[in-house]
Every structure is written in C-alpha cells, then in structure tokens.
Amino acid sequence: MYLIDFINENELIRLIELIQKNDENDHKLLKKCKKYLCNKIYRKERNLYYNEFLFYANLLIIHLKRIEDFDIAISDQLIGIIESSKEEHVKNEKCPIIQIPSNGIIFNSNIVNEFLYLVPNILNTINILQDRFFTLLGYFYNISKKIPNTLPKVKDNNELLKQFGKNIPKIVGDYWKNDGKFIRGYRNIKQHSFFLLNNYIIDTGYKFHLYLPDNPLEKDSNKISYKNKIDSLNVINISVDKFNIFVDDVLKELGCNEKNFSNKSYISPYSETPKNGCINIFQTGNEFICLYLQNGSLTSNHLPNKREYSLKYS
C-alpha cells in the first residue's frame, strides 16, 4: 500500500470507481480498500493545502528579506551618487553638489522598481495566508467543507470558530481589529501600482519611503490620497509580525507545540511521478535533498549547494 502515495490522484479515483462496480466480496475487503483510497485522496488534498501554506509563508520570508536588502541598497546607491557629485564638483565648480531638500528627493533606479514590484506581492501574500489558515486547520479537524474561503467570513462565524476552541473567536476578532482588517484593504494594491510611482521619496537621512494610499479601496484614481504618509515597509514589517503572533496564538490554543520549520517536499497529485530513480529534489537551508524511489523503498541523499544566484546592480 505504500506505493499508493505515489499514484496520481486520477488513478486513485479510477480505482475507487472500479471497486464500486465490483464490490461483491463477502468479507467487505473491497469496501475497506475503498475507504482507504478515499482517505488517501483526502490526505493528498489536505497535504496540498499544507504545502501551499508553507510555500506562501516561505515566499513571504524570502520577499521580506529581499525588500529589506533593497531598502538598504537604495540608500547606499544615492549616497554613492552624492559622493560622485562632490568629486565632480572638485573637477568642475559648475557641477553642483547634490543636497537633499527638507521635503525629500525623488529617486528612481532599477532597485527602486524592484522594491515597487515586491510591495504589492508581499501585501497580497499576507492576505492569501490569512484566507488559507483556517482552511488548512479545517482539514486537520475534519471540518474543511464548512470553512469559508476568506478570513472575514470565518471571523463572523463564531459557532464555527468555537469548534476549534472557546478562545479562538476572541483571538481571531482581536487580530482582525488590530491589523487584519487594515492589511486586508491592500490585498488588491496591484491595481494602484502605477500611482505608487509618484509617491516615494528619499529623506534627508537617506531613508527611502514608498507610501501606500490612505484609501486603498478607492477606485477613482483622482480621489486616491497619500496625506497620511503610510510607509510601505513599516506596514509590511508590522503586519508580518502581527500575523505571525496571530498564527502562534491560535496554534497554542489548539495545543500545538512550537517546532522549527524546515522546507519539505510532497508528491504532486497532478503529475505522473517516476516509479524508480530520482523523483524529487528540493532545497533546505544550504543544501539540496534528493529523494530516490527504488522498488518501493524511498531513500534520500543530501548534497551541498555550491552555487548561489543573486541579482547584482552596478
């Protein structure tokens, strides 16, 4: 039965249909097998949600680190330009030394454009994780069919939340009030990406600021305002921290112990998996793990990551 883990989901469904047509066994062994196969499909679906959640969580961490690096790089880049202006001024007095005015200066570069690209993706990813969290929990508590597909709908269903624990409705309500609702407003911020281009500066301390709209749900571009100076990186850092605390609070209420996270792999139910040889390669930390299947036995091999790829800017 172990090899069923590597059978395509469509093949499992075909086996179940075959059992339904031929279930004449007096000992009901075929019925037991059918139940086993149905549970196997259920677990495949559950694991798919589990791996999806980890994928987006891991992606969020990667993007957050990258955007923080960009934030530093933008400041360094401008400082380099200012130093160059001083050197040129020595050579030619008509070349002025760049000085940043009190209200800041507009600065554009390839790194700024990447920063701009990452902001909407990070904000949207936080909202995806919001929506997937209770869907995932529902699979482990066998109530997945009752779970709404968005956190706002989950929040309003106290009877459902009480099935997870008596304090869960309060934990969800507090998170929604303190940050969930606010960050929810920026889930479709991509539609305002172009307008963000005109609302960023570098201040006199060489700090880069990309401002989010005060009214993100406003569809009329002429009514979008930025008076509140909502700094995108501050919002992202605060929201990621609050969502992390929210998830921890829920899991602690459910009696889950803290555990160090490590990348894992899963067998896709949507593609044909090799029956022998190397079937999967995935990265964890500074190494790659290779999974091998040989005559029904699964083994692994750890290989060092000898090459790192990163974008560099001159």
Give an account of the 3D structure:
It is a single chain. The chain has helices at 9-21, 29-91, 110-140, 151-155, 158-162, 168-184, 193-196, 232-253; strands at residues 200-202, 208-212, 230-231, 277-284, 287-294, 297-304. The chain is mainly α and 314 residues long. It has 2 domains: 44-253, no CATH class; 274-314. The strands form 2 sheets. It has a 3-stranded antiparallel sheet. Strand 1 and strand 2 (208-212) form a beta hairpin. The model is unreliable at 1-7 (pLDDT under 50).
* Structure classification: mainly alpha
Question: What characterizes the major β-sheet?
Answer: 3 strands, antiparallel
Helical run tally: 8
Low-confidence parts: 1-7
> Secondary-structure element order, as H and E?
HHHHHHHEEEHEEE
Strand content: 5-15%
Radius of gyration, rounded? 26 Å
Determine the mean pLDDT: 80
What is the overall shape? globular
With strands numbered from the N-terminus, the spatial order across the biggest sheet is: 1-2-3
Task: Quote the distance from N terminus to C terminus.
Answer: 56 Å
Assembly classification: single chain
Count of individual beta strands: 6
Q: How much helical structure, as a percent, in the residues?
A: 40-55%
Q: How many domains is the backbone divided into?
A: 2
